[in-house]
Specification:
The structure is a homodimer. Chain A is α/β, with parallel strands linked by helices and about 270 residues long. Chain A is built from 8 helices and 16 strands. In chain A, about 50% of the residues are buried.
């Protein structure tokens, strides 16, 4: 079993990703796809007059400020446009994809953060109306039922709180939780960079291999912005029993197959 | 088994609909929900600078002109905002809802119309880039699998062509095809009118009962616009073995339970 997370940044080649997924499925591989949609969400939010806002936590992680209006735009883009676009591309290639959000069947359940701390201009303040949280439980019965029937699940945030409220969650960490819950051997996290760069944005400084116990150090010293959350997801996946996490590039040809060949940053126990 | 179609016009009370669905599910009833989203799609399409266009066929049926950009906006609203909003409302009430489009698992499959005839200013012309079609096959294995596992499916257009292309389909007729395929006893079609009105828009002229063999006559003489397609869906459902179709009002309190009590236009074989 492979869990493949496809980012939502500019430049992702969905057609190439879906071609690779179709090939893996033809070869009998079990695949679960998880996707983002941040770039398109920013565009639609701007067009609808509700510009995106991002906040940074005291520990340096950035995330989307998600009030109710933002959540609904987020759902439009992630669950509507991007999810159905990927499902359609896979269906055209003969892959019987089923697109689900974390709300559906309480697929991704967790605790909503009732309050978050953010840092603005060096000052810390509290935000209470932010609809975000973290995936703590994955409905593996639903996923395994679909996989056993030959479907390829295509998953996307939002997730659902224990109270039944939609909440934004980080897609990389949700993919990690899914890989752990399903006992996947590998987790691919593909985005619009070649992997972890020692000197961002110099692509020639790609780190080709990392041991799990180096993750915290490189996260402090090399990783920028979104990459830090990917490393956190990688760490959670490895701690949960996933054998190999690969941070790869979703911009070029054969992005999934290249990552499986070890092109990118390969992270494993030793 | 009951299939409930909730329209997407202005004034629909989703909260009341979901309350009724939760009660039916608690009573052990098997329910499949199908929904629209036309009013919100018009608003979002306008805001995104791609205003909605409607066409009328020579036989007098109106439908949304669906080019690729419209289809993607349609997916954002139907599959994203409306579908996930209903799933969330049901989850908050303890109903384990799963939202799917007709693309997912090829749930609603059919033939895309390669060309449609429309009437404009009394003249007939052909349109070729319209992504519409009709549901001919329902993936009952997927639906029954979900129902057996205790999930409540929440379904929405678009459907998928045999070539794997997303296509807009009429939601009322898709609900009818679903009711027939699942062997449902009843199909409720709820919208923002009390039922079929003999003298539209006079709500006191509600027709309370219709026999199946009267449908064609009243469709010619009374029905306006969208109501004609609802009557076509009702006819298809009854011909396919559904015992009772009820056209009801989704604007007030207890909209589903009232329709099941026969409030609205009840259509049956005799």
């Amino acid at each position: 079993m492979i869990v493949i997370k496809i980012g939502g940044s500019e430049g992702i080649d969905y057609e190439a990703v879906c071609g690779d997924v179709a090939q893996l499925v033809r070869e009998g591989q079990r695949v679960v796809l998880v996707h983002g949609g941040s770039h398109l969400t920013n565009q639609v939010a701007l067009a609808l007059g509700h510009p995106p806002q991002f906040v940074t936590s005291p520990s340096g992680y950035t995330s989307r400020l998600t009030d109710r209006a933002t959540l609904e735009i987020f759902e439009m883009v992630y669950c509507g446009q991007v999810n159905k676009n990927i499902v359609e591309r896979l269906q055209r290639r003969g892959v019987n994809a089923v697109g689900l959000s974390g709300l559906d069947g309480r697929l991704w359940q967790g605790t909503r953060k009732s309050v978050i701390k953010v840092v603005e201009n060096g000052r810390t303040r509290l935000i209470r109306d932010n609809l975000t949280g973290r995936v703590e439980q994955v409905n593996t019965a639903l996923l395994n039922g679909l996989l056993h029937s030959g479907f390829v699940p295509v998953l996307t945030p939002p997730a659902i709180s224990y109270d039944g409220e939609a909440m934004n969650v980080d897609g990389d960490r949700a993919a990690a939780a899914t890989a752990v819950a399903l006992g996947a051997a590998e987790l691919l996290i593909l985005s619009n960079v070649p992997g972890l760069l020692r000197h961002f944005p110099d692509e020639s400084s790609l780190i080709r291999h990392l041991a799990a116990d180096e993750l915290e150090h490189v996260s402090q010293t090399c990783a920028q912005g979104r990459m830090r959350i990917k490393l956190l997801g990688a760490q959670e996946a490895l701690q949960g029993g996933v054998r190999r996490v690969i941070l790869g590039d979703a911009r070029g040809e054969r992005p999934v197959l290249r990552a499986l060949d070890g092109v990118g940053t390969v992270i494993s126990e030793q």
